[in-house]
Specification:
2 copies of one chain form a homodimer.
Chain A (H helix, E strand, L loop, with lengths): L4 H8 L3 H8 L7 H14 L5 H8 L4 E6 L5 H16 L3 E6 L3 H10 L8 E4 L5 H8 L5 E4 L7 E6 L1 H14 L5 E5 L9 H15 L9 E3 L4 H12 L7 E4 L2 H13 L9 E6 L10 E4 L2 H17 L9 E4 L2 E3 L14
Parallel strand pairs in A: 1-2, 1-3, 3-4, 4-5, 5-11, 6-7, 6-8, 8-9, 9-10
Antiparallel strand pairs in A: 10-12
The structure holds a DNA duplex (30 and 30 nucleotides).
Chain lengths: 340, 340
Amino acid sequence: MTVSITDVARAAGVSASTVSRALRGRPGVSEEVRAQIAAVAAQLGYIASRSASSLASGRTYTIGVVAPYIGRWFFGTVLDAAEQVFSAAGYDVLLYNLGSPDARKRFFTSLPVRKRVDAVLSLLIPDPAETAALRSLGVPLAGTVGGARDGFTVVGIDDRAGAESAVRHLVNLGHRRIGMISGASGPLQWTTPIDRRQAYLDVLAEAGIEHDPALEADGGYTVEGGERAMTALLATSRPPTAVFAQSDEMAMGAMRALRRHRLTVPDDVSVVGFDDHELAEVVGLTTVSQPVAGQGAEAARLLLRQLDEPDAERPADKVRMPIRLVLRETTAPPNPRGPQ
Amino acid sequence: MTVSITDVARAAGVSASTVSRALRGRPGVSEEVRAQIAAVAAQLGYIASRSASSLASGRTYTIGVVAPYIGRWFFGTVLDAAEQVFSAAGYDVLLYNLGSPDARKRFFTSLPVRKRVDAVLSLLIPDPAETAALRSLGVPLAGTVGGARDGFTVVGIDDRAGAESAVRHLVNLGHRRIGMISGASGPLQWTTPIDRRQAYLDVLAEAGIEHDPALEADGGYTVEGGERAMTALLATSRPPTAVFAQSDEMAMGAMRALRRHRLTVPDDVSVVGFDDHELAEVVGLTTVSQPVAGQGAEAARLLLRQLDEPDAERPADKVRMPIRLVLRETTAPPNPRGPQ
DNA sequence: AAACTGAACGCAAACGCTTGCGCAACAACG
DNA sequence: CGTTGTTGCGCAAGCGTTTGCGTTCAGTTT
């Protein structure tokens, strides 16, 4: 049916071993024979069977990527960038979309990547048991987003610094009542919400502003959650004049809530987000920009490097990408008349 | 190192063949032996090698998914849904992100999925040569989005009907100067822009409105393109009082352009989009909603069905998902004073 | 009681490649 | 002109499964 390596060997008048070596650029084949084999292979349309070659060699030329919600902008963008790097290097990517808890459980118990991948890139934070499962694969591991894990090369950003710049911006504009829309950390050691919150507290303290727990609300990192959180903040006795949302999605939800309350941004309330979502510019959202695609690409590159030089020293187990506060139209000095 | 099928066989006191049959639920194994083997396998942590089993059986239990920009909301969402269906059915997915032309060329020339997948789902429209390449794989094929292709099971929506409902809505509101922001079809037989445009023309004609070519602008299906297109429309001698954007991204770009021109939506200009992007609700965009995730899931299901019953008659080569006009806040009757 | 069933299981041959090793052939050396 | 290297290539043994076929054995049939 399909042409196999022995077909090529026969047609080229050599042995299968020579074809194998020739096509993969291994030494032990003269240049002329190599060229001849390449020509024959091309003419026959020969493509090596991956299963056979990985069975024989142990190498799969495949990377496993596990990610939570790939439909969401952040993860989709990271995945997109990582995939480009992998495929440019000749690797295929096996995608595991672990958004739902049972998909996640299914993955970690049956571990379908075993013996199928040369490395895995994780876009989610595995818990200790999951980490152990991944490590048991015996392949290089890398991840994006915060949360240091043993055996992982992780690339992320300085969440503290980013959040500090956002909150400090609000302080510098003269705001004193600054709310925060955060996301619970949940059961996992996903440190981002914690770090961003700490930065918020630090900046308030450094500005001599007393922290008011009533100004914090949980937005669960979704648009709807952000809307609910903002609504809750507006219902307090003294609503904030500015809010720092830990993600752009939540910021957009907050803006929606404000609009529903007939409040204008930034005249009544300033809003600053985090991420620099592709649509942040569209809605004029001031936010702290992080290189999302950049993180995916960088993590992918680091993984490939580990594959190329397995015993090379790993200089940085944790690389931090730059962040930058992007000023747009949703922040302004507090309105002297106060909200509404 | 890792435990193989012979290890399990030895531990269970049976042959490897029996282990293989037992674990895969094949007949020819008594229930007690099967249970015993299952227990031993679980206890040893045995997981069959995919490469070996697919080499031997020809089955890979893997689906290839080729998609253009997986970072974009639409494709990310489709992919997300499809992946869930596949993985729930025990299939892995090999992802090929073919956004850039050379990634695309690379894919279709080296065809890395050959002998690696049991089926392929295409989220892009392959040109004739690419279609031939895919067909040469000899596996079931399915695709989303319009464009009928031989050998493909395709699921999509009725673009004409959707666009008609959007434009008709504007007409019913009383608009007579209705612009359209479209996207060029490009070299591929991507019929969506064509269909949506035809619907626009049809509705205008049916309403007795003369078509003005100056009211059409190309937005390339991106936010920036939509902004440029709207800017161009506003620069004409008689700007439209309403615009139909062929995608929500372009609609958002248009809204941004309008805001920059200090025009308000919908008082000065009405805007209606297409897709029901996850953020359409956030910006209050009136749009025609299509089941994006639904299309991905449905295409995946149809593919699995073909895999299960290879020679079943395929009742519908082309399935159409329902659409629905969602009224929000960006459309209103024309302002009697006219724009600006 | 002989012959015939299935059912349950083992044997061994694929599947298509990779790779350590061996063996020519030939060049370069003392 | 023997020796020692190189270089280029073929042999054959895997890699871990699946599966067609053969064997055994308990349980029907005549």
